[in-house]
Amino acid sequence: MKNFITLMLVAIFSWLAVLPMTASANNVQFPTLLEGLKQKNFSKKAVVIDQLEITGDARVLKVFQHMIKGKLYYEKSELVRFVFVEKNESGFAITNVLNDEPLGSVGKREVKKVKVNNKLRGKLRLAIAKLSLNHPDVNLRRDAVRLMFKNIDAAAVQLLTARLTVEAKDKVRDTIEVGIALFDLESIDKQVKLKSIEILGDSLEPAARAALLPLVAKDDTNDYLLQDRDVLTAAIKAVARIDAKLKYNNWAETIYFGLSLGSVLLLAAIGLAITFGVMGVINMAHGELIMIGAYTTYVVQLLMPDHIEYSLLVAIPSAFLMAGLIGIAIERGVIRFLYGRPLETLLATFGISLILQQLVRTVFSPLNRSVETPQWMSGAFEINSALALTYSRFYIIIFSLLVFAALLMILKKTSLGLHVRAVSQNRAMARAMGIRSGWVDAMTFGLGSGIAGIAGVALSQLTNVGPNMGQAYIIDSFMVVVFGGVGNLWGTLVAAMSLGVINKVLEPWAGAVLAKIIVLIFIILFIQKKPRGLFPQRGRAAEH
Amino acid sequence: MKALDGLRQVMRRDRVFDFMIEKQPPAMSGTHVVKEGEIDVSHGPILYLEGVNVAFDGFKAINDLNLTINDGELRCIIGPNGAGKTTMMDIITGKTRPDSGSVYFGQTMDLTQMSEYEIAAAGIGRKFQKPTIFPEHSVFQNLELALQTDKRVWPSLFFKLNGEQRDRIDEVLEMIGLTAECHLRAAQLSHGQKQWLEIGMLVIQSPRVLLVDEPIAGMTHQEAERTAELLIGLAGKHSVVVVEHDMEFIRSIAQTVTVLHEGHVLAEGTMDMVQNDPRVISVYLGE
Amino acid sequence: MENRSFVMNLLANDNAARWFLSTLFMLGIVVPFCNLMVPQDSIFHVSSYTVTLLGKYLSYALLAIALDLVWGYCGILSLGHAAFFALGGYAMGMYLMRQIGDRGVYGNPDLPDFMVFLNWDTLPWYWQGFDMFWFAMLMALLVPAALAYVFGWLAFRSRVTGVYLSIITQALTFALLLAFFRNEMGFGGNNGLTDFKEILGFSLQSDTTRAGLFVFTVIFLALGYLVSRYVVSSKMGRVVVAIRDAEDRTRFVGYKVESFKLWIWVFSAMLAGIAGALYTPQVGIINPGEFSPLNSIELVVWVAVGGRGTLIGAVIGAVVVNFAKTFFTAAAPEVWLFFLGGLFIFVTIFMPNGIMGLVKGFSEKRAARLARQSPSEVRS
Prior knowledge:
heterotrimer, B: Rossmann fold, 4-stranded antiparallel beta sheet, 12 helices, globular, C: mainly alpha, 16 helices, 2% strand
């Protein structure tokens, strides 16, 4: 922990610094100071900002936040009130700054923006940071500390030290300590400096590593620039400690990204694993069924704009039904005439995919549509300063596994599954036993297509929804199924996850496009080596 | 599913990257060069199978199979379903690789090291259970394709039929009784005629050994009789191995009969000997 | 050129082939004549736009023949054949780029514009030699051939067939598409190669050059057709069909199936490369879009519509479908994909042998009817 005396000194200083703020806080000063923002001169505005900052008025933070985003305006009418604005169809929806009272809509010409330049923005950012330090939300407090890292000075350290005395949350305390250490790093006192290096070495804040790096810089002859051996050794050790942790984090992150890509692949491929793997039908329109699912999500959101939170729950069954019905129509209308002729099936279903694409283009326009992400899916789970796992990816991993499990159950435990397996093994015999093989074909194809639709719902949360989105997944999906072994659902799972991870591991090293090419080539070679995939169906039955 | 199974069949694992597997020393593989009369039958037998085992995922299709076929012999092979008859033919023709054991053609040619077309060119012809011919070609062209010539790519591109070869085709057409149909598309032939055409395609390759899988399946009585004559006529000049279920047919042509059961030779001898063997009876009639 | 008696021999008893070659011959004479000699206001005048369009169709026709050889005759459905076409096109495009010299926007005598734009200071090694026409043409043949050889060698040896092969070929062209989109590849990235000025010293903008290119396309299509015809009517061609119909039987008859497949595959890739090299100077651009899987699949539909397994069918299909495409994309662009998609389904279900199948069925019926009426006359 910190040297006791330093702590005491800093505490006293900061108390002294905080004192005048609270004292001068009053209601009269705030509106008056605000008027000063109408001036054109930026340096005069800067003075006003400083003054506003020390009023301690609760409304100041909000004013600054809107100002930095360019959303602080004042009316041109005789009232000349300051307002926050939000754009809407007719112009601006405005809210009174003083009391948060909504004032309805006005035209663009009736209000004037409080302009800011880059210098002011920097100032505002710092001011916001300082004000947010005392915000009740833990994450906001921490973000505020982080914002101060960039240009930390004695004043900032005072603020931080003051906060440290009252801060209860460990993660904010740690961040504050890093901030103080960043300042102490410049100290001329060697002990303080060494202590701060120690603290920074324990932190994964990017700023900590960035601050340490200059200390271990080398010259052209590969010698360290820093003369002080003790500091140098400490810094080298600290950087090494951070790097080790970062490496570990990077791997964790890569694998997380890989798994989430893998689960997208799994969702896209799992429907294909049924139509291709179990029925032996090559469905080139599979990607378009995914697209149908995504567009269903879009339409569902259009229909229930006030309930975006629940829209996905509605979208999943609707997409399943929609894509499933289209799949059944495809099977009954085209594919059943082409059983036993795989190449013809491939061509005909490709024709279907073209028609579906054009249909969507005609109905929804060729432009991409964006589907909204519900609140509960956005955000990230922060493990440490360098590693944050986004919730949307997490939900998709879970979701894909659930779909996989459900499908497995359907095939293993239901009578449909039994019939599907029977027909796929011996159509004539199954028919002789009284199974309506035509009906089973339609249902199986519908099931595979419906799952493609569900994949579309998940994909709509990750990428843009457009007429071409299916194309991007069809080759990948086939690769996954073939890689995993045709007709083997577990193989599909393993193949999807490993391809996802391989792709993400290669990406930083080779770039996204090259990584994709490498994976494609890898699979092409793999199929040469093991044409029946990772987990081939074996036995005499497979030979004939 | 049929198509998929077909795919699986052509993409079997053991055939992949076989060029990576180390070849036998050049001296050995040199003996595989195909020339007439190089097959060494000085010890009598033309085909040896010794201690051959094949398992498909735990199921032993062929279990320690020992079999020798003599030069010029007509051998019938019988056995209940799943006895491994077709698998045995797959092994001899290089379609399936044995897990262990040796398969020799003459004294010198190791069939387990050769690919299908090499085995075919070396002089082992095979007729499939289902008649497999080239349906879009005429009967004449079917035989022309099978004719023993240089079967590499470039020679095929500049191939011209000479008089001698034409005579040979006419001769075989005569033998299988399809002279009148020689310009018909093979797909238009009757089932029996297709079987004969396939046999004709084997004969025209002048093989030393003919493997014939269920030649009379789906034939009328008359057709079967003609087929029997055909096969008997072939024996002597060629070694003929016939797999068949029809006991009456076997009796009409057989010299020596081998009974396979569960991938193993159960009994061997004349038809009468085999039919009176208690083990054979128990296999066929049940315990 | 081909030996006359040899050609006559080849075409004996083949009215369709004679008819086809005469039509090509006529086109090769009439179209340039009507373009260059007939005055513009005459109704017999053929515009340069039409000449270029026809030239494009005919280079597509050569590509269709290439696909038909592997798909129609050998049963290998390639969903990536446009890749070979595009590689041939790029080889020609590289030559045309080098011909621009210092007339580019940046006026750099050594580097094409896009390299200057990317701040490259030297020509990459794989661009060396492309300033020579003969070298570029050799590459238009050899690069597709080499890719086809490596790919085919791997695929056929390990007996990858049917839809698996189709999907891998699609993945192949997809991988190339991604690769050619990259600026670092040095093929102009997204924009491809364009702004060509001249070929062998003739300006690409002049009508005479365009007419000349058209005549060359006609000649190469005729040559490509004749050679392919020789191949499919040789014993080699019969073996290839045999492989399509009964691969195992072919193998047990003693043919090394892999070698035959590889031969026809590489031959087909080279034809596609020639088609690409003819295409680029006429349309004036080659870009990564040519690698897109959709292009390869459209190509399959040309052959399917015309009738696979007949060389003339491939040509007819290429011309008919592309004519329809030109018509629809001008008149009602949104209808085109509906039409194309519908065509896929219709042809595979109702017309598996394409237009040539219909013609053949019709003429067989007619022959049968005639034979019933007067058997002796028909025989003579």
